[in-house]
Amino acid sequence: MQRRRSFEPSTLDELKSLAESAGYTVLGKIEQVRAPDPRYQIGYGKIKELVKLVKETGAQKIIFDNPLRPVQAYNIAKETGVEAIDRFQLILEIFARRATTTEAKLQIQLARLKYELARAKEKVRLAKLGEQPGFMGLGAYEVDVYYETVKRQIQTIIEKLRKIRRKRVLHRERRAELGFPSISLAGYTNAGKSSLFTALTEEEVPIDNALFTTLSTTTRLVKFSRKKFLLTDTVGFIDRLPLTLIEAFRSTLEETIYSDLILLVVDVSEPIATIEKKLSVCLETIEHIGASGIPIITALNKIDLLSEMETQEKFEALRDKTPKPVLISALYGLNIDKLKEEIAKNLRNYVRASFSLPLSNEAMPFLSWLFSRADVQEIKYEGDVAYVTFEAVPWFAEKVKSRVGELGGKIESFKY
Ligand code: GDP
Ligand code: MG
Q1: How far is the CA of 266 from the centre of ligand 2 (A)?
Q2: Ligand 1 centroid vs 265 CA: distance in angstroms?
Q3: Is the beta carbon of 329 within 6 A of some atom in ligand 1?
Q4: I want to staple 84 with a disulfide (CB 3.0 to 4.6 A). Which of 56, 76, 212, 261 is the partner?
């Protein structure tokens, strides 16, 4: 749902991608060009249309691109019978879904409370005016108490965050203990990250339950160029990100983007000035959070929407502005093989090792652990000795090496 002025471009496509990132299925959309209405944000005629659409589609929520004041959200919910949220609340939901570290969770809670505080003021005012009797079931006095409570909670979180920052966990320790190289998809909402994720996960590798529970819901184990990788669809960069959400965004991005390679997805069908602006925000943010040592490949996506000449012009304009650009179409599967080759070529940071291990009681659990957490390429048994060849990222391979030693085995080869 969007209300806009006639000269502004529609941002509903972006809102749809955002809604999908938050796990929603989009059932319909309505747009109106006019000045905002104080009661409903949109006009009353549109509200009637919205009521009808909600009924027809069985929608359970309405998402507005425009900011909703509490009174507007309340009025819309009353008319339509379903909850109405705005873009800000939607973005908060996306971050909340992705956050796993304590710091990211606290940052999100902080942003949510600050938002609540701003709205509590209006609720206090409305309750005092008696405009909304029983708004959220609260009278004027209770709303005052509520306001003070939120303020105190904000202070508590700020204090907790200060303590956490003093003893930052190493990024390595944040990651799941896995030997597979990991790739993170990054880029703006609507650039085509999820589409590329789908194109690259066609050859998804089945994994066991224990591993499944340690992976985040947006991570898959995939195989190409005869190698296995973990691929993660990260929280995307968001256009017009509200200022109060910047810290929450950074800490959520930070925990997902640490990987062996970043695949930056760019919508190359947009005007060149927009592409350049977005690229510089992405690259600067990656640097800002300290992930600049990670190799980056840029997937210039949606070339199917451009003529061959336009594609070449854009490529020439961008080739020196972004790392390792590859022209693709995620939707039509154009140049995906070329992209996979480029990925494999840039992921040289792993070890290929072989060892022999006597089959003791402790050896079997160790081998099954290794099977589920690294790329075991060969295993054969001779008598009561196992011969294993595997590939893994260096720190993981080192760990295997020392465990093999402890179990009385022998490293036969160990190559970077
Ligand atoms: P995300 O927000 O970055 O995850 O982007 P999505 O993968 O959800 O894609 C956003 C929109 O762009 C969707 O409507 C896709 O169908 C569309 N899209 C993605 N890749 C391509 C492409 O290669 N060509 C075209 N024409 N559309 C694409
Ligand atoms: Mg997506």
Answers
A1: 13
A2: 10
A3: yes
A4: 76
Helices (H), 289-335: 308-318
Higher pLDDT, 210 or 333: 333
Q: What CATH topology corresponds to 351-415?
A: Alpha-Beta Plaits (3.30.70)
| Any atom of ligand 1 within 6 Å of the Cβ of 330 | yes
Domains 2-95 and 351-415 fall in the same CATH topology: no
Q: Domain ranges in the chain? A: 2-95, 100-161, 179-346, 351-415
Question: Which of 190, 196, 218, 237 most suits a substitution to test ligand 1, by most atoms within 8 Å of the C-beta?
Answer: 190
Q: Is residue 37 predicted with pLDDT exceeding 90? A: no
The atom of ligand 1 lying closest to the CA of 187 is 3
Burial 185-200 (b: 16+ CB within 10 A, else e): bbbbbbbbbbbbbebb
Quick one: which ligand is closest to 235's CA?
2
In ligand 1, which atom is closest to the CA atom of 330? 23
Burial 361-377 (b: 16+ CB within 10 A, else e): eebeebbeebebbbbbe
CATH numeric code, 2-95: 3.40.50.11060
Q: pLDDT of 347-392, one tens digit each?
A: 877 899 999 999 999 999 999 999 989 999 999 999 999 999 999 9
User: Using CA atoms, how far apart are residues 359 and 381, in angstroms rounded to an integer?
Assistant: 9
pLDDT of amino acid 332:
97
Ligand 1 binding pocket includes 75 (Cβ within 6 Å): no
d(CA 15, CA 167): 37
Higher-confidence residue of 165 and 257: namely 257
Nearest residue by C-alpha to atom 19 in ligand 1: 192
pLDDT of residue 135 exceeding 70: no
Could you name the CATH architecture of 179-346? 3-Layer(aba) Sandwich (3.40)
Predicted pLDDT of residue 133:
46
